[in-house]
Design goal:
Blueprint: E1 4-8, H1 14-24, E2 28-32, H2 43-46, E3 56-59, E4 62-65, H3 67-77, H4 88-113, H5 122-146, H6 160-175, H7 181-190, H8 194-203
Parallel strand pairs: 1-2
Antiparallel strand pairs: 1-3, 3-4
Helix pairs in contact: 1-3, 1-6, 1-8, 4-5, 4-6, 6-7
Length: 213
C-alpha cells in the first residue's frame, strides 16, 4: 500500500489530521508548509492544493483536501485503529461534530484572521473580526455542550472526533477565549496520548494548552 504524503503547517487545523495519522499506524511522509513564511504559496504546492491551504494528502498520484473528508479517509484506511465508531448513531454524532467544526467554528476563526477571503474592503475585515471575537465565547460554550460528559467523542477510545477539536481549542486558549469543563477534560486526556505528543513534537508545539498571547 502506498505511503501517504501529508502536507501541514505547524499549529494549523492540519494538526487534527497529523494526530489521526499518528494514531492510525499508517505510513506517512510529513511535509511542512509554514503558512507564516508563505511556503504554502509555492506554485508546486498549488498543484496539490489549488487554494494553497492545509491539510492535504497526496495518495497514489491524487490530491485529497478538506479536513473532515481526510479524517474519515484515514479512519477508513486504518479500521484496526477504530478512529471512527461502527455503530450508526455514534458515527453520526462524530460526523455531525466534524461538520459543525468545519461549517461554523472554523468559519468564525476565518472571519477573525482571514477577512480577505470574504470581502475586498479592509473596513469589512475589521467588522468581521469584531463579530468573530464576539461570537467565539458562545461557540465554545456550544462546543462544550456537544462533547460527552466524560470519555471520548466516539465512545471507548480516542478517534477523529476528538482530534478534530484539538487545533480549535489551542486557538481559543491563545486568544484567551474561555473553554468549558468537558473540553478541558478532553485536552487533558488527549495530552497523554503518544500520538498527540509525537505530532506536537514534529510541529514544534510545546503543548495542547498554550498560554494566551
Amino acid at each position: 500500500m502506498e505511503t501517504l504524503q501529508f502536507f501541514y503547517s505547524p499549529g494549523a487545523c492540519s494538526l487534527a489530521l497529523h494526530v489521526a495519522l499518528e494514531q492510525s499506524g499508517l505510513a506517512f511522509e510529513p511535509v511542512c508548509k509554514r503558512i507564516a513564511q508563505g511556503e504554502h504559496l509555492d506554485p508546486a504546492y498549488r498543484q496539490i492544493h489549488p487554494q494553497a491551504r492545509v491539510p492535504a494528502l497526496w495518495v497514489g498520484g491524487e490530491s485529497l483536501t478538506e479536513l473532515p473528508a481526510l479524517l474519515v479517509y484515514v479512519a477508513q484506511r486504518a479500521p484496526a485503529a477504530r478512529l471512527l465508531p461502527d455503530e450508526p448513531l455514534a458515527q453520526a454524532r462524530v460526523l455531525g461534530l466534524l461538520a459543525w467544526l468545519s461549517s461554523t467554528l472554523h468559519i468564525a476563526f476565518a472571519h477573525l484572521w482571514r477577512g480577505e477571503r470574504f470581502a475586498t474592503e479592509p473596513e469589512v475585515w475589521k467588522h468581521l473580526e469584531q463579530v468573530a471575537r464576539a461570537q467565539l465565547p458562545g461557540l465554545f460554550e456550544e462546543l462544550d455542550a456537544r462533547l460527552p460528559p466524560q470519555g471520548w467523542v466516539g465512545g471507548a477510545q480516542p478517534g477523529i472526533g476528538d482530534f478534530a477539536v484539538l487545533p480549535f481549542a489551542r486557538w481559543a486558549l491563545r486568544l484567551g477565549v474561555p473553554i468549558g469543563p468537558r473540553l478541558q477534560a478532553l485536552l487533558a486526556a488527549a495530552a497523554e496520548l503518544p500520538a498527540v505528543q509525537r505530532a506536537l513534537a514534529r510541529e514544534g508545539l510545546e503543548s495542547l494548552t498554550p498560554a494566551p498571547l
